[in-house]
Amino acid sequence: MLRHLLTTVRHRSTTALYNHHYRHLYRSASYKHPKTPTPPSPPKPPKAPQKPQTFTFHDVTWEDPYSWMSSLQDKVAMRHMDMYMEQEEKYTEAVMSDTERLQTKLQSEMASRLDFDLSTPPLRWGPWLYYRRVEEGKQYPVLCRRLASLNDEFISHKSPSAGFDFTSGKRIEQKLLDYNQEAERFGGYAYEELSEISPDHKFLAYTMYDKDNDYFKLSVRNLNSGALCSKPNANRVSNLAWIKDGQALLYVITDENRRPHRIYCSMIGSTEEDVLLLEEQDETVYVNIRHTKDFHFVTVNTFSPTSSKVFLINAADPFSGMTLVWESEGIVHCILEHHQGYLYLFTDAAKDGHVVDSHYLLCSPVDCPSNPRIWESVFIDDQDLIIEDVDFSNSRLVLITREGRNFGICSVALPLLGRKQAVYLRELNPHFLPLPKNVCKISPGPNYDFYSTTMRFTISSPVMPDAVVDYDLSNGKWNIVQQQNILHERTRILYGTALSSAIAEKSTNVKNSSTNDVKSEDDNLWNDLSEFYACEHYDVSSYDGTVVPLTIVYSCKNRKDKQSPGLLHGHGAFGEILDKQWRSELKSLLDRGWIVAYADVRGGGGGGKKWHHDGRGTKKQNSIRDYISCAKYLVEKEIVQENKLAAWGYSAGGLLVASAINCSPELFRAAVLKVPFLDATNTLLYPILPLTAVDYEEFGYPGDIDDFHAIRKFSPYDNIQKDVLYPSVLVSSSFNTRFGVWEAAKWVARVREQTIYDPKHPILLNLMTDIVEENRYLQCKESALETAFLLKAMES
After folding, report:
1. How does residue 277 score in pLDDT terms, banded at 50, 70 and 90?
2. SS3 177
3. How far is residue 650's CA from residue 741's CA, in Å, rounded to a whole number?
């Protein structure tokens, strides 16, 4: 348009130009400019109906205007709930409508980073290699196996093609279970909780989730014929254990409140009824079973708020009764193993009446004549070298250790005979295996083969995709058998290949050491991303002087000095270590200059039992104040720009973050709460979904007056500030979560009711579909929504 005007002007005379300009000025005196269009008014949030109900407990009375949302048996209330959920869904869509292109871009980014090869690395057990693979165009995997003798150089399920070896003329792959067919059995949904192959490799026992009935159903399949066995055919199954070399199966069923309480024995191939071995009638006692790795025994663990016990069943003679081998007061963690006539117990129970801060290993001969049984300590307690976990093979004991924040894996030879007293672990000259930098978690693999010298572990780091590693304990060699290569957007599966052999060759050059600071000579072998993403650790002083570990991750290229937005993760519950492993969806934030931080607050793991206990129950405020201290540290040290800090919490971490927002709403610009625990008072007092003794141990028993007042104080729903501006919050929940969707809906409604309304600080409720966890592309869609929400909140 401008070019056209200039061209026209050049062809006019000066007089004509003057007259034109004069007439234009004259006309403009009466000309009215068009009005600037009024921007559309922001969508208004829905208002939930209020139906106040009064509650009184321990002489405390409170009113809940939204308690009707959890009245699942009230059909009228549920119709209102459905209508309200529709309004919330439309409101979230309206608020986020201006980010649709951004969401599409983010989803594309995240989907491009997904593993295209979903097959698992083969796991050797006896003569077989077991693995899962996904066939093209199918949603669920297929469980397969091959004889290792026919395929020593197994690389992936694609070689030989379709499991047929044209050289030998043999079909070497056997399909054991197609989960796509299982989905047809269970209404289009295939979610497996338990899966156990019998020690003779003839049967597969597994449980599938029956969505219509909301329980797990047990099936046993004959691996030779592929047919389902007629029995056992039980519902509400929570545990399995093979006995009698695979001729029989023990299983545990739950009651209507999902409490495991009965143990049955089923003889495979028999037409007789399954035999009831144990029924625990005390409603506070929970039952759990597992077989020892050598399949000689089955351990029966029972626990309640007052005691924990371990019984032993002879796997060769399950009807000979149960023998009590260990007991302790209160709920404690205890795992029992058997090795060549000795029982090994790994526990965190009190010692001599004194609470311990970490796990320890005990030993006792199977045929111990004394009653009660005498247990001897294997290692002397060493606070400089904490034992976090153990695993047994026939020839080696493997220990996952921690020195401060540094994790390690070491092994010592078995049997540990000829030692009459406990020793320091270092005195046994443990062989420490090589690890990459910044390890934040080590997870033992299935390791079914008790007689193998190779053990599998998954190594996690904030700046490295998870590496599945096989360690040969006999010679120290190690292979990365699976790891996603983010830089090339692919996954490598290595097994018997030249590359893994090269890795093993280099690893043998690493000298044996008595500490866990063993590093590979070539960190690139680990596919470490530290060249592009930095990981730093800080010590943050909390309100009472306690030092709280804080980890931050950022892009070396895209970080904006003193101007970076940040996202702070927290959990702080059940003694669980905060998940700091590399997550490819966070790459979209990192590459946009964000800081991703992790606060290891009290109540979580990694600091011993005291660290956990100092952040639970009546001490839950410690977790919340630790998290706030870490948030303030990020801003005050200018790691994150002021007013550009977001919070993120999942499940019990949602309680942590929501409570922190209640205390310091001005500290956060935005927050994402995923399936959060928000209505602690009502959930613990009047549980709609069954709770366990562990839940009450963690958050408190409302019947205890001190616990009750502590719950009232940290419950996010009961402590929302009035007439204060809250940050933007996205709450994601679904109807198929442990903490019901009503918790999220009630919290959202009350925050809108009590706080200052600002359309630039929306409180959104996002309802996820039930199948998100099973569909990776739906996961990308949800992650894209969360990321777009955070980016929008920072720019508003």
Report:
1. very high
2. strand
3. 14
Alpha carbons 740 and 718: distance in angstroms, whole number: 17
Residue type, 527: N
Which of 582, 551, 597, 590 is CA-nearest to residue 464?
Answer: 582
Q: 147-194: per-residue pLDDT in tens?
A: 888 765 555 545 545 555 555 556 678 999 999 999 888 888 788 899
Spatial separation of the C-alpha atoms in residues 634 and 258, rounded to whole Å: 42
| Arithmetic mean of pLDDT over the chain | 86
Q: How far is CA 520 from the centre of its chain?
A: 28
Q: State CA 206 to chain mean position distance.
A: 22
Sign of CA dihedral 718, 723, 727, 733: positive
Question: Strand order of the sheet with strand 237-243?
Answer: 237-243, 248-254, 260-267, 275-279
The predicted structure's pLDDT at residue 501: 38
| φ, ψ of residue 417 in degrees (nearest 5) | -100, 165
Which residue in the block uniquely carries the two structure tokens 């139906």?
Answer: 51
Q: What is the pLDDT of residues 680-697, one digit of tens each?
A: 999 999 988 888 888 999
Model pTM?
0.87
- Distance (Å, whole) CA 223 – CA 143: 11
Q: Which pLDDT value is given to residue 522?
A: 47
Q: Where are the beta strands (DSSP E) in 542-692?
A: 547-555, 566-570, 595-599, 645-650, 670-674
CB atoms within 10 A of CB 454: 17
pLDDT tens string 629-686: 999 999 999 999 999 999 999 999 999 999 999 999 999 999 999 999 999 999 999 9
Residue 183 — left, alpha, or beta (φ > 0 → left; ψ -120 to 50 → alpha)? alpha
pLDDT at 262 over 70: yes
Assess contact for 338 and 366: CB atoms under 8 A. Answer: yes
Q: Which amino acid is at 559?
A: R
Torsion of CA 256, 204, 124, 436, to 10 degrees: -20
**H or E element, residue 327:** strand 322-329
The Cα 637–Cα 511 span in angstroms is 40
pLDDT of residue 521: 42
Query: Coil, strand, or helix at residue 59?
Result: coil
Alpha-carbon distance of 768 to 734, in angstroms, equals: 5
Residue 121 CA, chain-centre distance (Å), reads 21
Query: What's the CA gap between 672 and 362, in Å, rounded?
Result: 43
**Residue-wise pLDDT tens digits, 700-753:** 999 999 999 999 999 999 999 999 999 999 999 987 655 688 999 999 999 999
Per-position b or e across 39-52, b if 16+ CB within 10 A of its CB? eeeeeebbebeeee
**pLDDT per residue over 544-596, tens digit each?**
999 999 999 999 999 988 889 999 999 999 999 999 999 989 999 999 999 99
Residue 109 has a CB neighbour count (10 Å cut-off) of 18
pLDDT of 111 > 90? The answer is no
| Token pair of 52 as six digits | 């106040």
Which string of b and e fits 242-261 if b means at least 16 CB within 10 Å? bbbebbbbbbbbbeeebbbb
Q: Could you tell me if 181 and 188 are in contact, meaning their C-beta atoms sit under 8 angstroms apart?
A: no
Residue position matching structure tokens 């010590």: 539
67-87 pLDDT tens trace: 999 998 889 999 999 999 999
Amino acid symbol at 219: S
Sheet strand arrangement including 490-493: 441-444, 454-461, 464-472, 478-485, 490-493
The DSSP annotation for 182-250 comes to HHHHTTT---EEEEEE-TTSSEEEEEEEETTTTEEEEEEEETTT-PBPS----BSEEEEEEEGGGTEEE
Q: Say if CB 389 and CB 411 are below 8 A apart.
A: no
Largest CA distance in the chain: 123
